[in-house]
Amino acid sequence: MSRAPYRLSSALASALLIAVLARGAMGVSRTADRVWIRPDAARFPVTRIAVLPVVAEDVHAGRAVEEQWLLQFIADGHDWLPSEVCGQTMRALSPRRPDSTARAIENQVFHAELPDTTGVPPLARALAAQAILTLKVKRWERVVEADPTITTAYVELAAALVDSAGHVLWRISGEQRQLSKYGIPQVVRGEGAIGGTIVEPTIQGGAMSSSGQLISAPTVLGVVGVKGGVTYQTNAAGNTGELAPDFEAALTKLYERWQAVYPLRRRAGR
Q: Using one digit for the tens of pLDDT, what is the confidence trace for 66-99?
């Protein structure tokens, strides 16, 4: 297996490379997704996809990445097998070393952003899935700007979809940034991100960790706004331990772009 990201075998040399550009909510970021799609991916009979445990240094980030994926991609008509169920099956494959399979795949995805495709067929059979999905968190960080009340959340992920025969169907990686005040996304009111009016929430109290977890929930007064289909609550940011809204917004925007180039979308009603 090649360790070089996006180095493909000769059988997949006819790859389709798409550059998807997206501008952040306030024009503070410009991102480019790197996408590879197998040209005949749509012809593969995939109905059940196993989501393997997310490769992430932060367990909260991994959980959020999977939960948001399932929330946004559930409408595509596939049956998604959660990582918790996949983990149980993988542990049963090696009773004497129950974590060996998961650790091997984690190491592969960590280094190559892709599992060893030769090991996918037996794993897919054990999971009764037509394909497996791997996700890697490459960056999950909040950076304080010049104004200490303003921060930018950075979410960078990589994903790969491999069918039960070991064919790579789709690979994608990209970043989304979200500007916020105390972790509450700033919303631009007006036409477009440039030249609009910034709607800032009034926030009292609250604290956050650098990984995006609410240590104590602040009170948010006034309208925060609606952007990209996600509504931000006007009375509270959430309970202790919940994902902060800026990371949630960044994840949502990133997945919205990825949904547009996801190659296996199925019709409603299957």
A: 999 999 998 888 899 999 999 999 999 887 888 8
Which tokens sit at 156? 């960078």
Within the chain, which residue ranges are assigned CATH 3.40.50.10610?
14-179
Going 116 to 71 to 257 to 40, the CA torsion angle's sign is positive
Separation of CA 35 from chain center: 14
Q: Are 119 and 106 in contact (CB under 8 A)?
A: no
Name residue, tokens 């997949």. 12
Specify the length of the chain in residues: 270
As a whole number of angstroms, the distance between CA 20 and CA 6 comes to 16
Q: Against a cut of 0.85, is the pTM above it?
A: no
Q: Rounded to an integer, what distance in angstroms lies between the CA atom of residue 250 and that of residue 65? A: 11
Domain covering 14-179: architecture = 3-Layer(aba) Sandwich (3.40)
Nearest CA among 176, 182, 248 for reference residue 215? 182
